[in-house]
Amino acid sequence: MTAPTPLLLTVEQAARQLSIGRTLMFALIRDGQIETVQVGRLRRITPAALAAFTERLSAQQSSPAA
């Protein structure tokens, strides 16, 4: 049996999902490229926010240069 997909990811879990480091993940959050939610004092990332980021990244790279 597989574990259910979490609704909210820690910064470290989200970084692992993108195969990037924790420092780069914090930079992407700080720059507003990845949206987060706050639960009390904790900062969490939704899987949808990661999907939106990767879709934007893919669209930027596939669009012709101006």
Secondary structure layout:
Layout: H1 11-18, H2 22-30, E1 37-39, E2 42-44, H3 47-62
Antiparallel strand pairs: 1-2
Helix pairs in contact: 1-2
Largest sheet: 2 strands, antiparallel
Rg computed from alpha carbons, rounded to a whole number of angstroms: 13 Å
Number of strands: 2
Helix content: 40-55%
What are the secondary-structure elements, in order, as H or E? HHEEH
- Portion in beta strands: 5-15%
Mean pLDDT: 93
Outline type: globular
SS content category: mainly alpha
Task: Compute the number of helices.
Answer: 3
Strand order of the largest sheet: 1-2
What is the CA–CA distance across the termini? 49 Å
* Poorly predicted spans: none
Protein model, in words:
The chain is mostly helical and 66 residues long. It has a domain at 11-55. Helices cover 50% and strands 9% of the residues. The protein has helices at residues 11-18, 22-30, 47-62, and strands at residues 37-39, 42-44. It has a two-stranded antiparallel ribbon. Strand 1 and strand 2 (42-44) form a beta hairpin. Helix 1 (11-18) packs across helix 2 (22-30). The chain is globular and about 40 Å long. It starts with 10 loop residues before the first helix and ends with a helix. The model has no long low-confidence stretch (mean pLDDT 93).
Short description:
The protein is mainly α and 66 residues long. The protein has helices at residues 11-18, 22-30, 47-62, and strands spanning 37-39, 42-44.
